[in-house]
Amino acid sequence: MSTISFRLALTGLATGLSLSLSVPSAQAAEGRVIPPQMSWSFSGPFGKFDRAQLQRGFKVVKEVCANCHSMSLLRIRNLAQPGGPEFTPGQVNALAATYTVKDGPNDQGEMFDRPGRAADPFPAPFPNEQAARAANGGALPVDLSVIAKARTYERGFPQFIFDIFTQYQEQGPDYIHALMTGYKDPPPEGTPPLLPGQYFNTYMPGHLIAMPKPISDGQVEYPKGADGKSPVPETVDQYGKDVAAFLVWAAEPHMEARKRTGLQVMVFLLIFGSLLYYTKKKVWARMPDGSAAH
Amino acid sequence: MSGHSSYVPKTGIERWLDARLPIVRLMHDSAVSYPVPRNLNYFWTFGGILVFMLVAQIVTGIILAMHYTPHSTMAFNSVEHIMRDVNFGWLLRYLHANGASMFFVAVYVHIFRGLYYGSYKAPREVLWILGVIIFLLMMATAFMGYVLPWGQMSFWGATVITNLFSALPVIGETIVTFLWGGYSVDNPTLNRFFSLHYLLPFMIFGVVILHIWALHVVGQNNPTGVEVKNVAKDTVPFTPYATIKDIFGMVCFIFVFSYFVFYQPNFMGHADNYIPANPAVTPTHIVPEWYFLPFYAILRAIPDKLGGVLAMGAAIVVLAFLPWIDTSKVKSMTYRPVARVLFWAFLVTCIVLGYLGAMPAEEPFVTYSRIFTVLYFGFFVALFVVGLFEKPKPLPSSIADSVLGSLKGGSGARLATATAAEPNAKG
Lengths: 294, 427
What we know:
The complex is a heterodimer of chains A (294) and B (427).
Chain A: H1 3-20, H2 22-29, H3 51-63, H4 89-97, E1 100-103, E2 112-115, H5 129-135, H6 147-150, H7 159-166, H8 171-181, E3 199-200, E4 208-209, H9 236-251, H10 255-285
Antiparallel strand pairs in A: 1-2, 3-4
Chain B: H1 12-20, H2 23-31, E1 35-37, H3 46-67, H4 75-84, H5 89-116, H6 125-147, H7 152-164, H8 172-180, H9 187-218, H10 231-234, E2 235-237, H11 238-263, H12 293-301, H13 305-320, H14 322-325, H15 337-358, H16 365-389, H17 399-405, H18 415-418
Antiparallel strand pairs in B: 1-2
């Protein structure tokens, strides 16, 4: 590259940089606060879910979130499959039986209630959207099945390029954890007065959220360790982490298999590629007439 | 370059078939004995990579179509069904979705390679135009494919892009109604997009065959841009030389592809597309896929809707006229000191336009978009003008000379410059 073109390229880069500086300010204008980055067991190329964390996360979801939020894409049996919370089939069947599912019509043409089965989807808390809105002051509690992949924030240039190499892609769980811990009551000074059904959350874009603070410290009891105490604190912060981890699994139930397969594929390609490289060198060492190639 | 056939049928069956349908001869002549310039660099492996990507997209796509439901109330959930319940469905879908992006990475490298080495010039004009047609078909296919998961970005992307046609005078509204199959983006739109998304790849395949046919008639260009003069000295047979090099290039490309599929599968997508389509809620920023961003920036740079649509169309169509826009007789920019600077400036322009296309339509991005849109089209004007007065560096007398001369550090040493021409495609 000649010096002139190099200078041009630099100018281009500089322009890009100066443009990017306005990205965070644009986000601030929309009332976005970047969620703090947490450390997740499932991040990175060798990431795996923490089974205990997924089980705790499910407990919170079941006892708290599921009162308003559906999770329609998940089936109860998913809780027992490899790479997830890995409850035992017995636990999953027992859990399924605690739900009542409307089925039918039967031979008489009537709908009937039956106990849930592991193959059933997670029962929704409300029969339809209208019922959900009516019970929640007009706001619709979103379905949580893929929420961990459906929420993100702008990383901006050049951070989004670094993300390719650091494999940072946990914007979703970071946001969910931040949202659960981001309630401020009373709201900070300078906030316009809240209308009924509005709550202040630091991390919600625009800060106004229709969901009341969902959980408080000590609300969900975690399984006890040998010493009779829960191995992790029963705090909103911990609940937030556990729920976020569970929702990442719910959105991407085959993530562990994906990363594991990925390693095998990459190792194979590396070996195959180097063999090909040396074969190519050998082939190209001589021209068809036997003369040296270069 | 295709001389007479060197295929000699060895067995009785081969002779019998050759007299009736010389298909083995065709394959032998195009993939074994076909002479390729001996000085091709790794940018020439992207043609093979693109064929691989097309086949990979068709294969994964056909299997995905077995599990997908093209209905507005079921499409989103059927994609999630593929992700959750179909064996290796997550792999198929991530291969297909990231495959589209990687297809565009490869095609942009391929286009910028052609641009740098003047591969569009005589006698390769038809070859180049066929390439532009493939590019257009790819864009249509990718756009319709992105609509199929029926997420928020699918829906609103489809709404914005199809609405562009309404800018056309007289027939605009009719075209849009026809595209939608009604008066808004809805189930009929999804249905016809699915149908067309299945059809267009096979049309691409057809044009690719023409593209390769045209290539095999005129022969490959090469980093010096000097045509083959002596087949024995300047070329090597496709097999094993180009075959092994292409496969190696392909495996390196698949390595990058796999990295995204297995470790960053949603990097090139939009989080909003994991929200089911909702006609009542408009996303804050409607952004097309990254490979459309430079054109999207040009579209939004023009304050007039019809003007924007025409500018965007012109930005693509102008490529087809490159063989006649570029007035220089010298193909390779390695020997064109001024045009080479233009090339790099154009590459930077495209990247910056891509960045601007991802930004909201507000200041200062709008002004920047306008400046860089002018620069985009300015490149073609400048290329026309520069060719009239530019004094090229001396060309090597032949391909063999340029390769063998490089040992002595002579004229061939310039090839080193050529290998630095790595077009970055993350627009």
